[in-house]
Design goal:
The chain has about 425 residues and is α/β, with parallel strands linked by helices. It folds into two domains: about 200 residues, Alpha-beta prism (UDP-n-acetylglucosamine1-carboxyvinyl-transferase, Chain), CATH 3.65.10.10; about 210 residues, UDP-n-acetylglucosamine1-carboxyvinyl-transferase, Chain. About 30% of the residues lie in helices and about 25% in strands. It is built from 14 helices and 24 strands. It has a four-stranded mixed sheet. Strand 22, helix 12 and strand 23 form a beta-alpha-beta unit. The protein starts with a strand and ends with a strand.
Length: about 425
């Protein structure tokens, strides 16, 4: 097991390159199941989740190799439609293989997923959507067993409205609909950049999709798709995390290879907090000279303020003198980082999905435990400004979504080291 040891009090200065989006790659990789061929996915982040999904693809008979940020995938020899519990349990995005397998082969058996240890995130929307496309689905011994009931074991186009806007379910059903017989219309679909990027890749493969970038997607099924190469979009959550880290430390940082458009809500809030931000094509420069203003945030679906940045913003507001409110409308159980932040001196109270931060208090280093991916990031960011030494344990959560965070932060002047530990 590894931990981070951080000495607080160092301003961040310099430049870093933002990696490809974790959630972007985890959508593009299963899309390769839809058509036999060799794929080259560039700007792929070297993350634990990417490796986990690669292992799942390999169990299906798919070759994958990550060389730097170049991911090579060969789907010409798929020999299984079974995704086992041992791998799928490690992350929820593994469930993405269900739609493509079912659509191309007419059947699939995929374990119910695992992932972060917070909040109810059921897969019922995935199942309901696939049933609307003509799938017969049963749950057997912890596995989703699906079969297409149409002619020649093919899915059938249909209309489906998501009860809530779900990125995972939208991606899964979108992929399934590309090879379904007839036309499908998906309403209240997720509009996140990762879904838009997936749709654009599918179009390059020969899919017929209208409404890309909106919450209504219309898909005219085709008989077959073809191989293509694609570049993964920049990771907007990683970018937001480093922008907040720079702001918290009163730093001056430049992010390169980023898409500012995907960060509009975060940039707007940072400017309200007093940050000076300059956007130039695929670069964002942030300067912060004073303590931040206390700025409330309410998370919402894209293009609103991301739930994946809620924990980091809470850390930022610990530096603001006064009362700040953080409301998460997406998930109602995503404040497990709060008790750990309190160990560092944070004054935070929680009532259901509302956190109230009394900022400007003295923060001092302590040993803290990560509970999930974004909680890990909030603890690291707080450690950057806390007096003394902070140890962040269970950073395997963080490794799921941040590529070499300690290396990037150290290059900006942070005093942070990755150290082996026996503590579980």
């Amino acid at each position: 097991m590894d931990k981070f040891v951080i000495e607080g009090g160092h301003k961040l200065q310099g430049r870093i390159k933002i990696a490809g989006a974790k959630n972007g790659s985890l959508a593009l990789m299963p899309a390769t199941i839809l058509a036999p061929g060799t794929y080259h996915l560039t700007n792929t982040p070297n993350l634990k989740d990417v490796w986990t999904l690669s292992k799942i693809l390999e169990t299906l008979g798919i070759f994958s190799e990550l060389n730097g940020d170049d991911l090579f995938i060969d789907t010409r020899n798929i020999n299984s439609t079974f995704a086992p519990y041992e791998l799928v349990k490690k992350m929820r995005a593994s469930f993405y293989v269900l739609g493509p397998l079912l659509s191309r082969f007419g059947e699939a058996k995929v374990s119910l997923p695992g992932g972060c240890a917070w909040g109810p995130r059921p897969v019922d929307l995935h199942i309901k959507g696939l049933e609307k496309l003509g799938a017969e689905i049963t749950i057997e011994n912890g596995y989703v067993v699906a079969k297409a009931k149409g002619h020649n074991n093919r899915l059938i186009g249909n209309k489906f409205t998501f009860d809530i806007s779900s990125v995972g379910a939208t991606g899964n059903i979108l992929m399934a609909a590309t090879l379904a017989k007839g036309t499908s219309k998906l309403s209240n679909a997720a509009m996140e950049p990762e879904i838009t990027a997936l749709a654009r890749m599918l179009v390059k493969m020969g899919a017929k999709i209208e409404g890309i970038g909106t919450n209504i997607l219309e898909i005219e099924g085709v008989d077959e798709l073809k191989q293509c190469n694609e570049e993964t979009i920049p990771d907007r959550i990683e970018a937001a995390t480093y922008l907040i880290a720079g702001a918290m430390t009163g730093g001056n940082i430049l992010l390169e290879k980023v898409n500012p458009y995907h960060l509009s809500a975060v940039i707007s809030k940072l400017e309200e907090a007093g940050c000076e931000i300059d956007v130039n094509n695929d670069k964002i420069q942030l300067k912060m000279e004073n303590k931040p203003n206390p700025i409330d945030v309410i998370t919402s679906i894209y293009p609103g303020f991301p739930t994946d940045v809620q924990a980091q913003w809470m850390s930022f507001m610990l530096e603001a003198k006064g009362i700040t409110k953080v409301t998460d409308t997406i998930y109602f159980d995503r404040f497990k980082h709060v008790p750990e932040l309190q160990r560092l001196g944070a004054d935070i109270s929680v009532n259901e999905n509302l956190a109230i931060i009394n900022g400007g208090k003295h923060l001092s280093g302590a040993m803290v435990m990560s509970s999930d991916l974004r909680a890990s990031a909030s603890l690291v960011l707080t450690g950057l400004v806390a007096e003394g030494i902070t140890e962040v344990h269970r950073i395997y959560h963080l490794d799921r979504g941040y590529e070499s965070m300690e290396v990037k932060l150290a290059s900006l002047g942070a005093n942070i080291k990755r150290v082996k530990t026996d503590l579980i």
